[in-house]
Amino acid sequence: MSSTKKKELPVILREHAESQFADELAALAETDDRQRPPNWKLSPWAVTTYLMGGTLSNGAVIIPKYVGSRRLMEIAVATLATDRALLLLGVPGTAKTWVSEHLAAAVSGDSTLLVQGTAGTAEEAIRYGWNYAMLLAKGPSLDALVPSPVMRAMTEGRIARVEELTRIPSDVQDTLITILSEKTLPIPELNTEAQATKGFNVIATANNRDKGVNELSSALKRRFNTVVLPPPATVEEEVTIVQQRVASLGRALELPGDAPAIEEIRRIVTIFRELRDGKTEDGKMKLKSPSGTLSTAEAISVVNSGVALAAHFGDGRLKPVDVASSLTGAIIKDPVQDAIVWKEYLETVAKERDDWKALYRACRETL
Amino acid sequence: MSSERVHIFGIRHHGPGSARSLERALEALQPDCLLIEGPPDAEEVLALAVHAEMEPPVALLVYVPDEPRRAAFYPFAGFSPEWRAIRYGLQQGVPTRFMDLPQWHQLAGEAENEGEPSEETSGKSGDEETAVVGGDAADNSPSAAEPIFRRDPLGLLAEAAGFSDGERWWDYLIESRRGNCTEVFTAVREAMTALRDDAPAMDDLRELRREAYMRKTLRAALKEGFERIAVVCGAWHAPALDPARLPPAAHDSSVLAGLKKVKTAAAWSPWTYDRLASGSGYGAGVVSPAWYELLWSDEQDVAVHWLTRVAQVMRSSDLDASPAHVIEAVRLAESLAAMRERPLPGLEELDEAALSVLCNGQQGPMALVRRRLIIGDRLGAIPAEAPMAPLQRDLLALQKRLRLPATSEIKKYDLDLRKPNDLARSCLLHRLNLLDVPWGDSDRGGRGGKGTFHEYWQVQWAPELAVKLIEASRYGNTIEAAATARVKQACDDAATLAELTELLAHALLAELPLAVKSLVAAIQRRASVASDVPQLMAALPALARTMRYGNVRQTDATLVGDVIRGVVERICIGLPSACHSLNDDAAGDLFTLTIEVGAALDILSDEGMLAAWYDSQRSITEQSGVHPLLRGRAVRTLHDAGRLEADQLHRVLALELSPAVARTAAAAWIEGFLRSSGLVLIHDLTLWNAVNAWVASLSGEAFTEVLPLLRRTFATFETAERRQMGERVKRGGPSTAAGGAVEPAASGFNYERAAQVLPLLAKLLGREAPP
C-alpha cells in the first residue's frame, strides 16, 4: 500500500470572525491611536470602522461587515463602552448574530464565549456547572466547578454573547440581572463569588417577531440598551447584500451555472420590500403585508433555490419559473390571509409592470 | 465714520443661540435705533408685540385686503432673535423699524403674474423667511436651478467642517453655545462675506431688491443722525449691509426703480410650533422648535432636563420610565458625544439615547416624544384688540355678496340649487360647517319634499361663532381655502373608511374639488390596506351612487371611478374568506351588505367588475365553511345573472336541501336564497318547482321542525304574493304552466292580439309598421 496519497485536512466549514478577519483586526490595532477602554483590543472608533468598513491611514482596506446605518453601530459600541449590556433586536435575517459576533471579535478578540438560548437553556449555561466525578472525589472546590461562557467572560474581562435571549425561560433569564447590575456571580456552595473584571460585557440578541415567547422582565430589560436593527433601507443596499451572499453561498455549495441576473434579484428584492413595507417603492400604492417577516435572508434563500433549480433542471440561467414556487412559498405562510395578500399584489402591482409579465405568469401558475 | 455707527448682527431665523447672543450684544451696545429684517407694512401693529396678552408663537400677517389669498406670514417664536430684538426695542423705547422689501411691493409683483395658476398661490412670494399657509400653496422650496450658494450657504460651510448638514453644524457651533460670545456675530459675518465673495454674483432680482431696500432704510437711519444703529438680519444678508462696503445710493435706487405698489394690511395671528417646524413646508423653519425652546430657557444641564422630560412624557402615556432609565440615557448620550468628539451631547445624541434606553429601541413611543418634545404643541395667543383676520373679512364679503346677513334671529331658507346664488349660499353654509362654524343647520330646516335640488337651512348667528372663525383662520385666509385645508386635515386624522366616505359626501356638497381629490386618494390608500371586507362593502354603495348619478352640483365624480375599481377588486378577493365561520348575526349583516353591493354593481354595470363579482359569488357557493345563508344568496345572485344553468340550479338545490343536511342549515340556505323575492318565486317556474319538490319530500316530522324557519322567509313576502302561492299549491303537484299566461313559451299565447299593438309601437318609435 502506497502512502503517497496525501490525507486531506478537513476544511472548516465556517471560520470565526476573529480568524477570518485577523488581518483587518491587526491593521486596525496598528493604526489605532485613540483611547481604548480597559481590556479592549481596539478603541470604540476603530471598532466602528471595523464594522462599517473604510480605508486606514496605512492603506489597509477594511471590508464593511454591516451594510446600513453607521449611527446604529455607534450606539452599539458606545453602549459596550459604558457598563450597560447591549440588546440587539430585529426581525429574523437582519444580521443580529452577525453584528454581535463581529462586535465581540473586535472588542475582545474572541467571539466564542457564546450561550445559545433555547427553551431548554438551564441556569448552568449562564452561571456554572459541576464536574460531578471531581465533586464526588474531592468535594466542592473551585477545581470541580465548570464555568459557563458568561462566567469566563467575567473573569477574563471579555464580551459574552447570548443568542436568542427571549427563548430562554424567564427564571433562567433573570440570573443575568445580578451579573449585569452587580457585576458579580455569587457561588454560595463555596461561599465565594466571581467578580467581573473590566472589559466584561454582554451582547444579547432577540427576535422581536417572537414577542411573548419569554418576554424579558422589566428588571432585566432595564439593564440593556436596545438597538433595533432594521431591514435594509434601500433597494440598492438590499440587492447588494443578496448578490454578495448568493455569490459566496453558491461558491460554497459548488453550484454550477451562471450568476443570477441582477434584474431577477432586483425583482425579488422589490417584491419582498414592497410587501414588507406595505407600500410600493414609488410610494403611490399601499399594500397589505403578509404574516411572514420577508427578511433579506429569505430573499437570499429564494434566489439560491432558484439558482439550484436552474442549474440542475434548467439551462443554468435563472428564470422567473425557477423562483416562482419558492417565492410563493416564502410569502404565503398563512394559507388563507397570505394567499389573499399575494394574489392582490400580483393582480394590482405585478400585473401592471411591463417587464414583470413572465414573473407574474409564473407566479399565477403556482397559486 | 458711518461704519462705527452701524452694528450688524447676522442671525439665524428662530435660532435660540443667536437670540441669546443678540440680547447680550444689544444690552452691551445700548443702540438708539433698531433695524430688523421684516415687513415695513407691519410697523403699525408692531406695538402689540409687548402687549401683556401676546404670547408667542405668533405670526405677522401681511395681506392684500381686497384679496386675502395674497398674503405672507412672518412667524416668530419666543426664541426668535427678531422677536427678542422687537421686544427689546419697544421696551427700551428705541425707534424700531422693519427694513425688508415691503410686501406692498412684493405682493404687487405677484399680482402681475396672476395669469399663471402656479404663481397665484399665497406663499409664492416665496422668500424663505415667510411661511406658507393653506393647502394650495405647495411649492415654497427654492427651485433646484438656484445655485447652492444661495440655497444653502450654511450647508457648504458645514460640509467644509465635516458635518452632514447645515442645521447640525450651526446648532453645534452657535445654538448650543451657552457662554458669552458677542464676537460670534463678527465671525458669522466674516464667514458669510467669504462665502458670498466666492459665490457667483446674484442675479435673482427679488433678492437684489430686498437688499437694496435694506440698505436704503439703513442710509435713511444714518441720515437721521442715530449714533448706534443695530441691524438685525439673516446671516446671509449681513455682508450686503456692511457699512464699509455700501454701494452708492444711486445704485440701489436704480434697482428699486419701477416697483409696483398695492395696498396691504397687517395683522397678528396665533401660530403653532407645528407650523414653525420645517416639516410643515416653511422654508426658514427649524427642525425642532420645542428643543430650541428648552435651549432658550435658562436650564443649565440641558441633557438631563430633556431626558427627564422624555421620561415624564412617557409616564403620562403609561409607559415605564424610571429615574434609573434617565441616568442611563444621560450616560449613553454622553459617551456617544465623546465617540463623535463633541463637547456636549446634542439633540441627535439625546434622541438616540432616549430611543435605545427609554423606549427599548421601539420607534412608537419616540413618535410621541418627537411630537411633544422636539416639535412641541404650543399654540400662541394674541390680544383681543388685535386687528381682524382675513377669514373674517372674507366671510363678511361673502355675506354681503350672497345677501345672507348674519343676524341673531332664526331664519329659514329654502335654497333652490338650480339658482347660482342659492347654490353659492348652500356651498358657503356647507363649508362653514366643515370649518366647525355651525352657522346654518340643514337638518332642522324642515322638509318640503320638492326634489333633490332643494335644500332647507335654518340659519342663526351667535357671538361664539366669531371666535370659532378666528380659530378656523389658521387653516387659511378664505372660507374656501380654509375649508379645503380643514378637510384635508380631517382626512389625515380619519380612523375608518366610513369616516372618509362620509367626509367625501360633505366635501362634494361644499364643492371643494382639491379636498375631494385628496379624500379620494386617501380612500384609495385606506381601502387598499383595509382587511375588513364588510367595511369595504359598506363604503361601496355610497361611492357607486356618487359615481353613477353625480349630484345636482355637477361635481366631477369620475375621480371616484378608480377608487371604486380598487374597492370592488378587494371585495371580490376577500369576500369568500370573509364568509367563513360566521354566527347568524354576522352572516345576516354580511347578507344585507352582499345585496347592497350587488345592487351597487348593477347600477355601475361595468362588465369587468360584474364578472369579478360573479366569480367571487361562485367561489362562495363552492366552499363548505360558508354560512348557508350567504351560500344561498350567492346561488341566487348567479341565478339572477343567468350564470347558472337550470340543471345546475336543480343540482345545487337538491344538494343543499338534501335530507342529510341539518334542517336549520337548509332553512338558512333557503332564506338566503329567497328572502324578499316572492314575486320571482311565483314567476320563475324552475325555481318554483325545485322548492316545491323539496317541501313535498319532507317527512311530516321534518316539516314540523322546519316550518318556523320556512315561515321566517315566507312571512317577508307580500300578502298578495303569499295568496298566489297558496292558490298554486292548492292546485297541487309540480306545475309546468301553472299560471297559464305566466310562461312566455306556454301555449295560449295570442299572436293576433299582440299584433294589434305593433302599429302604435312603431309610431312611437318612429319606424315603419311591419307588414
Automatic annotation (TrEMBL), chain A:
<dbReference type="Pfam" id="PF07728">
    <property type="entry name" value="AAA_5"/>
</dbReference>
<dbReference type="InterPro" id="IPR027417">
    <property type="entry name" value="P-loop_NTPase"/>
</dbReference>
<feature type="domain" description="ATPase dynein-related AAA">
    <location>
        <begin position="86"/>
        <end position="224"/>
    </location>
</feature>
<dbReference type="GO" id="GO:0016887">
    <property type="term" value="F:ATP hydrolysis activity"/>
</dbReference>
<dbReference type="InterPro" id="IPR011704">
    <property type="entry name" value="ATPase_dyneun-rel_AAA"/>
</dbReference>
<dbReference type="InterPro" id="IPR050764">
    <property type="entry name" value="CbbQ/NirQ/NorQ/GpvN"/>
</dbReference>
<dbReference type="GO" id="GO:0005524">
    <property type="term" value="F:ATP binding"/>
</dbReference>
<protein>
    <submittedName>
        <fullName>AAA domain (Dynein-related subfamily)</fullName>
    </submittedName>
</protein>
From TrEMBL, chain B:
<dbReference type="InterPro" id="IPR050458">
    <property type="entry name" value="LolB"/>
</dbReference>
<protein>
    <submittedName>
        <fullName>Uncharacterized protein</fullName>
    </submittedName>
</protein>
<dbReference type="Pfam" id="PF18934">
    <property type="entry name" value="DUF5682"/>
</dbReference>
<dbReference type="InterPro" id="IPR043737">
    <property type="entry name" value="DUF5682"/>
</dbReference>
<feature type="region of interest" description="Disordered">
    <location>
        <begin position="109"/>
        <end position="146"/>
    </location>
</feature>
